[in-house]
Specification:
The protein is 28% helix and 25% strand. It is built from 36 helices and 57 strands. Strands 26, 28, 30, 33, 38, 40, 44 and 45 form an eight-stranded antiparallel beta sheet that branches. Helix 22 packs antiparallel against helix 23 and helix 24 runs antiparallel to helix 25. The relative contact order is 0.05.
């Protein structure tokens, strides 16, 4: 509300009645010569007349006027200047105001980002230049033709008091005086302003009596009487002036009293002020005006107002109101206006004459407004606005709407928003095209509306209106409007910071366009900090560019350097622009004359970009890194390796000093800091003298605080002389020599570091060139030479040999909850790789490791040998050398004696063994219990002696490599040693080394396993070999295939596939405990041709299980039953159960144990891979034979069974598997919580043969052939059907044929039968083997239900052949259309009988097996009837198994039995 009251007070003091003053030259000289003041200047201080108490009738209301303020102007100055004149004047006003308020700009040079509000700040205090500009701008628009607020309401005519014939002088003055242009008819064709020659125009005559000029008072009195006779007694006065002598004590007022009422003059005069003012007299303004003179002037003004102005003004108001009432009020006038046609839609911009009704309405409204009758004035303005709008007179309509808005401000009424009228005025003025004055008038209405909205708290709408009006304005005024629009966004409680910054930047751009440098600089500085780091690069770049140039032009090199330095980060600009910015910066550097001694390094230099938060400290405490690859290895890997050689007592404790964490370093060893340098530009940067800034305190010193150590730095030196010591120099001064020669502190310079003493440190300089866009991680190194405390603080560098830069590290860390100090290490927690404080220890031993003869590439599975070279590069001897390997594909032999032998000779050497040391419990993974990937070796190069490696000595040891994974192969080595002398600093020291090589694919193998179709115990392996390197020149020769098994499975053998003539038949019988066949071996040398690049080859092998106990007969099973002391009652219960089951009399006798078949298979083939699930104690308890020893190898074959390198590679590859079966589509454990080892591996030995190259040897391992991933889904019961021909049946042969729908070949039995004697009844034997680890109860069912279309129990089949004879008689044909199944037969129904299947199960079709022990085999007899010759797939047989121990039930279907039967001739 206070702001609104202030706005009303401003309106009250701004819009005042104007009094025209005119006098003769003699009268003006009386005032000017002695006082330097015109008559107007003397009258202005007394324009405020109080205590009037005059009653005036305005319209229909009489109001009391307690006071009145007047504006006095010379008649020749009452005019509006031309637009080009006042625009130039306003530019000077703005420049002068900016210069005047320069200190204010410096004190308010920035708005803090996130500032809540500036609502507590006075509006004019934010931008005082705007208030001054606005006052002059409004003054320049006064005395317009369309508004009578500035038109004179009365006139004062002055002549000397002692002239002869004063009446004639006055008449001549009134006739020849220079009147305002709007009172003259010449410019516009008729008077627009109420002419002073009109007899109704108020006139007052004053006679000036110059007391100092010795005027005759009697004559003056006579002249006054003569004038009063003509102009009236009330309208004539005598004014005494110049009664003072000019002395300071006699003057009535100080010079400043009159100077405050004088306004600036413009060229040509106008706006109420003359063209120029006379030079003030030496005694000052108003020197001859005494107190009595000033009182006389005050009395004269009061008489003028009360006796002349007010009465005549009331009469004029009455006449105007009466005229308007007759012309525009009443019902008739309203209808007349309604009937009047609408004017053309063409903007009219012409004035109305003073005597027209349109002008009279504006005169009446303005006079009422000046008399503070705002409600009456608003009604007249609305009445006039209707006429102006109907006539499309935009200027007059806009003026009326603007005044209505002012009336609403001064006297608010409900529902009347002043902004609405100001907006109409703005839009109306804007319709006038090509008029600069109209554009200025529109801006004036916007300024008034903005002032009201700001006072009302409507800041956002105020900002929008100011923003809207700036587009068409000239630069200076547009800049001011944009500036005000920006500041309005900060006044709300929630300021709009981003919009403020954007509009302020636009204001700065407009200020810069109109050469207002100070204001432009101030606008840019207001928002510079707000855009920094926000991603608005273009705006930030524009601000710094303008600010830098303006500061350089102003001679402010320090600030120019700061702004140009900010332009260096311009990676988004073209290369030419970036080079231009860099050149500007270097030019200012030369101008400022910075020293190159480190004392004036620029702390904000951003070239190159340095990542100070993400650094990596490389140091050596109890752990050392042997190569670059070891740094990239995860710390967790090294921690697991170190657990093999240390315990929790050796683990480093928390290292703190003065509540600050630190690292350990060793004297004489370098500490490196990896710092990232980036060139963001498209031009090259030369960076030299790159060095660490350090602080060092010798061991004798105190705390490593900031005041304890000496600041350290290094001088620029040659990069190749990395070990050179820095010279001693004195501390550097921190002064900047300006171009004038004087020295002054530089605000951007940092404290100059003091050089270190040569016995303390060696700091190595770096020099490099950064190419466009290059990112370089540079290792900056420092070497402490003695024990003590070392602190690294930052980086120092020189850019393009011209300017030095300095930056301090600001490492990211975790904040402490309770900081114990102000240093970064006391405020945050840092990991070791980011700590910059070091405790330097005395000299220690240190190991360096390298690997000789290590190839860069190897083939997958290749076996190679390298030489590990260990060297003591420390200053003390070492002992207790240990080696930890992280990879199982690497091993270290116990001796280095065979290091000079060939590759194959060493592998076949029995004495070249591998001896591993026992790993501590800390090295074993607690979650998995796995530690097989870690290997610990204690290197004993001198047996039975204490091994000591002196400084400078080295040791060589062989390493065997066997990478098997394709890709980048890494080998991590950890060397551990102990110092020979007792030391409390480090009990041990390790060196971490990582070697890498690329492993390429060469040979791939895939084994396809299938159950043997002729044996329930053996498996068939199809081995596919492929040379994958098509672009290689190397050929592959497979030299050896070995089957390796361990545990209970030891003894698995390989055999070449038997030819068809050796295929087993039903008549082939082997003894039960026969020895392995000569063709069965653990190792074979296959005859495979050389594999060319990209070629492949396939071979078949038979996998034979280890020998085991023979199958038990019926008698043995009965003896076991007796041994269990089965009681008679239980036997009777069993008999009762048998009495209720089908076929009770033949149940036991029908189940014949197939012992002869077991003997025929041989004991070596009884134990299949499924039988290995049995416990190892089973064989021992029942007298099973132990597995046979490995056979003797032939010459050239590798031995995988004796201790050595090859045995080591495969000794840790055992893994645990849980035997699973399928039940309901889900795997279930057959033996609860019982894991077994299924370890049958196939190893392929290959050699690479290439001309003029050394032979290379490799191994390819096929892991765990007997696992569920290799074989088909495990079946708990394995089964097969065999034929048992009768006397009239002859078995011809058995062949393997691929059955439709099966992926494995099935045997086809060919038989002959004499169908002349009747249908063929074929006896079959179903062999069942329990492959699980639990006993099973079985039920065999042979059903004919699969032939659903043959439902009748009595059916008949015609005898003619219904199958294609070409297909039915060709069992070897690849087509299966001739396969005779019950579901595919096509028959003809005859004699009303339904057809039946081609074969029918007969005899006992449901047989129960009470108990089948794990690993046992039983034979169940079955019969099938065949009606005619053909090829048959005997199906429909299924086995239900129940494993009571684990509660699992399973149903399996017997594979089809292929039978081709022919008729005997």
């Amino acid at each position: 509300m206070a702001a609104l009251m202030e706005l009303r007070s401003w309106i009250y003091d701004t819009f005042l009645p104007v009094v025209m003053v005119s006098g003769t030259s003699a009268a003006e000289n009386i005032c000017l010569c002695r006082n330097g003041l015109s008559l107007v200047d003397i009258l202005r201080p007394y324009g405020h007349v109080t205590q009037l108490n005059v009653t005036m009738r305005v319209g229909e209301v009489s109001a009391k006027v307690p006071e009145l303020k007047l504006r006095f102007h010379n008649a020749s100055c009452i005019s509006q200047p031309k637009p080009e004149v006042y625009e130039e004047y306003l530019h000077e006003v703005l420049s002068a105001s900016a210069h005047k308020h320069h200190a204010h700009m410096e004190n308010h040079a920035g708005i803090v980002p996130g500032q809540s509000s500036i609502s507590g700040t006075h509006y004019n205090q934010v931008t005082p230049w705007y208030a001054e500009y606005k006052a002059e701008f409004l003054r320049m628009l006064a005395f317009g033709e369309h508004e009578m607020l500035d038109h004179p309401v009365a006139s004062i005519w002055a002549i000397p008091a002692d002239v002869n014939d004063p009446v004639s002088h006055l008449e001549a003055l009134m006739q020849k005086s220079v009147l305002p242009p709007l009172m003259q008819a010449a410019p516009l064709g008729s008077e627009v302003m109420f002419p002073s020659q009109d007899r109704e125009f108020p006139k007052h005559v004053v006679l000036l009596l110059d007391v100092a000029g010795s005027m005759d008072e009697i004559k003056s009195a006579d002249n006054l009487a003569a004038v009063r006779k003509v102009f009236g007694e009330a309208h004539c006065s005598l004014l005494y002036i110049n009664s003072a002598t000019g002395e300071r004590s006699a003057r009535g007022a100080s010079p400043d009293f009159f100077q405050g009422f004088q306004r600036n003059c413009i060229a040509g005069g106008g706006a109420g002020e003359p063209d120029a003012r006379v030079t003030p007299p030496p005694t000052g303004l108003g020197a001859c005006l005494s107190v009595a003179d000033l009182e006389s002037v005050s009395s004269f003004v009061r008489d003028f107002v009360s006796r002349t102005l007010m009465p005549r003004l009331e009469e004029r108001l009455y006449r105007l109101n009466a005229s308007i009432t007759v012309a525009r009020r009443g019902i008739r006038n309203r209808f007349t206006r309604l009937w009047r046609g609408a004017a053309d839609d063409v903007v009219v911009d012409k004035p109305y004459m003073w005597h027209s009704i349109e002008s009279q309405m504006r005169q009446l409204a303005d006079l009422a407004f000046l008399m503070h009758q705002y409600e009456f004035a608003a009604s007249i303005y609305r009445l006039a606005a209707q006429d102006y709008l109907s006539a499309n007179n935009a200027r007059w309509y806009g003026g009326a709407e603007e005044m209505i808005g002012l009336c609403c401000i001064m006297e608010p009424s409900e529902g009347q928003d002043p902004v609405k009228y100001f907006t109409r005025a703005y839009e109306s003025y804007a319709r006038i095209v090509g008029s600069r004055t109209a554009r200025a008038l529109a801006t004036r209405s916007v300024m008034t509306s903005a002032a009201y909205q700001h006072a009302s708290g409507r800041h956002l709408s105020c900002s929008l209106m100011l923003m809207r009006s700036h587009f068409e304005e000239e630069n200076a005024r547009a800049a001011l409007l944009l500036e005000q629009a920006a500041y309005q966004l900060l006044f709300p409680k929630t300021p709009s910071i981003r919009k403020y910054a954007f509009r302020m930047v636009l204001a700065g751009l407009r200020f810069h366009s109109c050469a207002q440098k100070r204001l432009s600089l101030h606008a840019y500085r207001q928002v510079l900090g707000m855009y920094h780091g926000k991603g608005w690069r273009s705006i930030e770049e524009h601000l710094n560019d303008i600010l830098g140039k303006q500061c350089r032009e102003a001679g402010d090199g320090v600030h120019a350097l700061d702004h140009f330095m900010s332009l260096l980060d311009s990676s988004h600009r073209p290369a030419a622009t970036q080079q231009h910015y860099l050149s500007q910066f270097l030019d200012v550097v030369k101008l400022v004359q910075l020293k190159h001694d480190g004392s004036q390094a620029l702390a904000g230099l951003c070239l190159p970009l340095i990542n100070t938060s993400e650094i990596n400290v490389l140091f050596s405490d109890h752990t050392c890194y042997g190569n670059e690859a070891s740094y990239l290895t995860p710390t967790s890997t090294w921690t697991q390796l170190e657990a093999c050689v240390s315990n929790w007592l050796d683990a480093p404790k928390q290292q703190t000093q003065d509540n600050e964490e630190f690292n350990l370093a060793v004297a004489g060893e370098e500490v490196a800091v990896e710092v990232e340098f980036k060139n963001p530009l498209l031009t090259r940067l030369h960076v030299s003298g790159v060095r660490l800034v350090c602080e060092f305190t010798p061991a004798e010193g105190g705390s490593p605080g900031p005041s304890g150590p000496t600041a350290l730095d290094a001088s620029p030196a040659d990069a190749q002389q990395s070990q050179a010591q820095d010279p001693l120099i004195d501390p550097l001064s921190h002064t900047l020599r300006s171009p004038g020669g004087s020295e002054a502190p530089h605000p951007l310079a940092v404290a100059g570091p003091v050089r270190p003493k040569h016995e303390h440190l060696t700091i190595i300089d770096g020099h490099f060139v950064l190419h466009p866009g290059e990112v370089l991680v540079e290792q900056l190194r420092v070497k402490p030479l003695v024990a003590g405390w070392l602190r690294i603080t930052g980086v120092h560098w020189i850019l393009n040999e011209a300017v030095e830069g300095h930056i301090e590290f600001d490492v990211l860390g975790r904040k402490r909850k309770d900081p114990k100090g102000t240093r970064p290490g006391q405020r945050k927690h840092y990991p070791p790789q980011r700590r910059l404080l070091f405790k330097v220890l005395p000299a220690m031993p240190r190991m360096e490791a390298s690997c000789q003869a290590l190839p860069t590439t190897m083939y997958a599975g290749e076996i190679g040998r390298a030489v590990l070279n260990v060297r003591n590069c420390g200053s003390l001897p070492l002992r207790g050398l240990q080696l930890v390997l992280s990879h199982a594909d690497v091993c270290c032999p116990s001796s280095s004696a065979n290091m000079s032998k060939g590759l194959v000779d060493t592998l076949t050497e029995a004495s070249d063994t591998v001896s591993l040391s026992r790993l501590p419990n800390a090295a074993i993974n607690k979650e998995t219990g796995d530690s097989t990937s870690l290997q610990l070796y204690r290197l004993q190069w001198v047996p039975d002696q204490e091994q000591v490696l002196q400084p400078g000595e080295s040791l060589q040891w062989p390493l065997w490599l066997h990478p098997r994974t394709v890709g980048l192969w890494e080998m991590h080595l950890l060397l551990s040693c102990e110092p020979t002398g007792a030391t409390s600093n480090m009990r041990y020291r390790t060196t971490r080394v990582t070697f890498q090589m690329q492993v390429l694919p060469l040979l791939t193998a895939r084994a396809h396993l299938a159950h043997s179709v002729s044996d329930l115990h053996s498996e068939i392996i199809k081995l596919d070999l492929q040379h994958t390197e098509k672009e290689s020149d190397d050929d592959i020769q497979v030299t050896q295939v070995t089957a390796i098994s361990a545990g209970k499975d030891m003894g698995w053998r390989l055999s070449p596939p038997a030819p068809p003539s050796l295929a087993p038949t039903s008549s082939t019988v082997s003894p039960t405990n026969s020895s392995p066949s000569p063709l069965e071996h653990h190792t074979l040398s296959p005859s495979i041709p050389v594999l060319r690049p990209g070629k492949g080859h396939s071979m078949f092998l038979e996998l034979l299980p280890p020998s085991r106990r023979p199958s038990r007969s019926i008698a043995q099973r009965a003896a076991e039953a007796a041994a269990l002391a089965l009681t008679q009652e239980k036997l009777e219960e069993l008999a009762e159960v048998e009495a209720t089951t089908p076929y009770p009399s033949n149940r036991v006798s029908a189940i014949v144990r197939h012992e002869s078949n077991l003997s025929r298979m041989g004991s070596s083939r009884v134990g299949s891979f499924q039988s290995s699930v049995l416990d190892s104690s089973t064989d021992d308890e029942e007298g099973g034979a132990p597995p046979p020893p490995p056979p003797t190898l032939t010459a050239g074959q590798l031995n995988f069974f004796s201790p050595g390198v090859l045995h080591h590679f495969y000794s840790t590859w055992q893994r645990q598997l849980m035997v699973k079966v399928l039940h309901g589509g889900k795997p279930a454990e057959l033996a609860a919580n019982k894991s077994v080892k299924l370890e049958v591996d196939l190893i392929i030995v290959w050699r690479v043969t290439a001309p003029n190259k050394q032979d290379r040897l490799g191994l390819l391992r096929l892991k765990d052939l007997t696992s569920t991933s290799q074989l088909p889904l495990l079946k708990p019961i394995r089964m097969a059907i065999q034929s048992s021909p009768a006397a009239n049946q002859v078995v011809v042969t058995r062949q393997l044929q691929l059955h439709s729908g099966s992926s494995t070949p099935s045997p086809v039995t060919h038989m002959k039968h004499d169908f002349r004697g009747g249908m063929c009844v074929m006896p079959l034997a179903l062999l069942l083997r329990n492959c699980s680890s639990s006993n099973a109860v079985l039920n065999v069912e042979a059903s004919n239900e699969s032939s659903s279309q043959f439902d009748s129990q009595h059916s008949w089949l015609m005898s003619r052949q219904i199958v294609n004879p070409d297909l039915s008689g060709s069992p070897s044909s690849p087509s299966h259309k001739g396969l005779m199944r019950a579901s595919t037969s096509v028959v003809t129904v005859q004699a009303g009988l339904s057809p039946c299947s081609e074969f029918v199960w007969c005899g006992r079709t449901s047989v129960a097996v009470d108990l089948l022990e794990a690993g046992d085999v039983v034979e169940v007899p079955l019969q099938v009837v065949l009606f005619r010759p053909g090829l048959y797939a005997i199906t429909g047989c299924q086995v239900r198994s129940s494993f009571g121990a684990v509660g699992v039930t399973d149903v399996q279907h017997v594979e089809p039995f292929m039978l081709n039967i022919e008729a005997m001739s």
